[in-house]
Amino acid sequence: MPEVFTLAQTPITSHSFSADRSQIAVSLNSNDAQILTRQGTEWVSTVTLAEHDKLITSIDWAPNSNRIVTCSQDRNAYVWQEQPDAETGKLVWKPTLVLLRINRAATYVRWSPKEDKFAVASGARAIAICSFDPENNWWVSKLLKKPIRSTVLSVDWHPNNVLLAAGSADMKARVFSAYIKEVDERPSPTVWGSKLPFNTVCGEYTSPAGGWVHAVGFSPSGDVLAFASHDSSINIVYPGGPVIHNIRMPSLPLVSLVWTSEDTIVAAGHDCRPLVFSGSEAGWQEAGTLDDATAPKSESRSAFGGGSSVGRLKTGAFATFRDADSRGQTSSSSTTSDTLLTIHQNTITNVRAYDYSGSNVSRVSTSGVDGMLVIWDVDAVSALTARVGGAHLR
Amino acid sequence: MDTAFRKIDIDIYDEDVLQESELYEADPRDPAEVLEDAKQRAGHVRSLLAKNDIPGALTIILDNAPYGPNIDDAKIITLQTLLTILNTTKSADIPGVIKALSMDTQDTLMKYLYKGMAMPGWGDISGSVLLGWHEKLTEVAGVGCIVRTMTDRRIV
Fold first, then answer.
1. Rounded distance between C-alpha atoms, residue A268 and residue A367, angstroms
2. Secondary structure (3-state) at B39
3. How many whole angstroms separate alpha carbon B33 and alpha carbon A174?
4. Fewer CB atoms inside 10 Å of the end CB: C or N, chain B?
5. Cβ of B152 and A171 within 8 Å?
6. DSSP string of B104-147?
7. Are A170 and A149 in contact, with CB atoms under 8 Å apart?
């Protein structure tokens, strides 16, 4: 059974757990980030990270160095570090400003695997690769610019700490070299290339029907790239050929994905439930969903499923307008409920690895526009055959 | 509130503006070649319709359909031929026909349904026929098919 927490009545823009999973950093659609601490089945706000003066767009908590990086529409990023306060000696989170040198909003941030660099995607057609300059005691950035033609929506690091995948609103998913001479050792050759000076473009891929690339992700080995785009499809790229497997879905687009093993991906988005894809270089397919909509879980869910076989179109807003049209009803007093059959009640915007067993991810966490945080067991895949899901037309 | 500023074309002040043509791969064929191809397909479709092979006719006309700029004639011939197929199909046959199509063809069909609905009164477009096909196509291919119609810049 998934663990479900309602953190807020507002959207959760981004979430990231601490290494021991006892704390979570979230931004609740505001200029501040909150650190929540788990107390039993509740998450209690313990710290507010207030420094940004526009909406925070992304948060990442580095597990080993215990540093939090936040980025925002105010075009800045801050690295937060827990340090003893000069007067009281208590541990407090202190921000350090990062010089991003971008003239549009920062959209997405991720620490590199070694946590000595992080990448900030932005609306300025650039990705800032930031590394620490010990001489001046601040974070400096170097910009990946070419050949990005529009806003970068997501990034993901290759396990070798050098390659970076980026998904962009110019309909392309790219693999770049983010090699920083002062920080990185010379990387050994990978399937993506062997000579890798900064800003080398190792690959550029697009989905057949185009669409903004919302999410990118390297497989655990780093040899395979997956990206989800707004044409309701997910693409898995093997760079050798290159062989690209495109899976078109009958449902709404995915906006976030995470690899759970070398042959499995969990992805979620506007369809409000996490889907599981599995395969190998020979082929990929949709394996099912983690959200078993047929299981009776709560009163509201079973109350809704009943007679409606066509899903969401006959409920919620649709029913409101239909009743207003045909019966002159304006209040929401009708019998139809606007609760979806899925656990998440709105778009899922983040999927992240939560727990590992060996090298594979055993649980993932999702958060979304409905203010909920859900932790799912990756093995609990149920088939999509019973498509009574609230988010489906059929 | 003054909203005139919203109408200002800010792109003309941007030297590095993103062009429509950068968003998709152009059709490598020459416009004349595309037009010739469209005419040939229209003939092929007529013979298939005579044999009552609706899925075959749809596949012929929708496979590799003309897209992009400067080929308006080919697009019109294709639309016209497609409308003939849609209008002659009995509504009871539609679900079976759609299930026989490939996913690519289903996506292209959806593009044409929206194109047709955007041109009311043109040629022999019938709104009720298009809506009938739209309903059945959505049942088979899902809302994902509509999403692809909206995102794909290879406009038919």
1. 10
2. helix
3. 34
4. N
5. no
6. HHHHHHHHHHHHHHTSTTSTT--HHHHHHHHHHHHHHHHHHHHH
7. yes
Are residues A170 and B22, on separate chains, in Cβ contact within 8 Å?
Answer: yes
Q: What pLDDT, in 10s, does the model give residues A371-391?
A: 999 999 999 998 875 443 334
CB contact under 8 A, A210 and B144: no
A313 Cβ under 8 Å from any chain B Cβ:
no
The contacts of residue B115 (CB under 8 Å, 6+ apart) are B79, B156
Chain A, 351 to 370: residues with Cβ < 8 Å from chain B are none
Strand extents, DSSP E, A274-371: 275-280, 283-289, 348-357, 360-368
- Phi, psi dihedrals of residue B94, rounded to the nearest 5°: -55, -50
Task: Say if the Cβ atoms of A393 and B18 lie within 8 Å.
Answer: no
Q: At residue A304, what are phi and psi to the nearest 5 degrees?
A: -85, -40
pTM, to two decimals: 0.89
A337 contacts: CB under 8 Å, gap ≥ 6: A300, A303, A304, A315
Q: What is the pLDDT of residues B85-140, one digit of tens each?
A: 999 999 999 999 999 999 999 999 999 999 999 998 888 888 999 999 999 999 99
Nearest-Cα distance to chain A for B150, in Å, is 8
Pairwise CB contact (< 8 Å): A252 & B144: yes
**The residue to which tokens 């899922």 are assigned:** A348
Q: How far apart are CA A216 and CA A303, in angstroms?
A: 37
Task: Tell me how far apart the alpha carbons of residues A46 and A67 are, in angstroms, rounded to a whole number.
Answer: 17
How far is B83 from B105, CA to CA, in rounded Å? 15
Among B18, B114, B148, B155, most A C-beta atoms within 10 A, so best to mutate, is B148
Question: Which residue of chain B comes nearest to A248, CA vs CA?
Answer: B144
Alpha-carbon gap, residue B111 to B37, rounded angstroms: 20
Judge contact between A304 and A390, C-beta under 8 A.
Answer: yes
**C-alpha neighbours within 13 Å on the C-beta side of residue A255:** 20
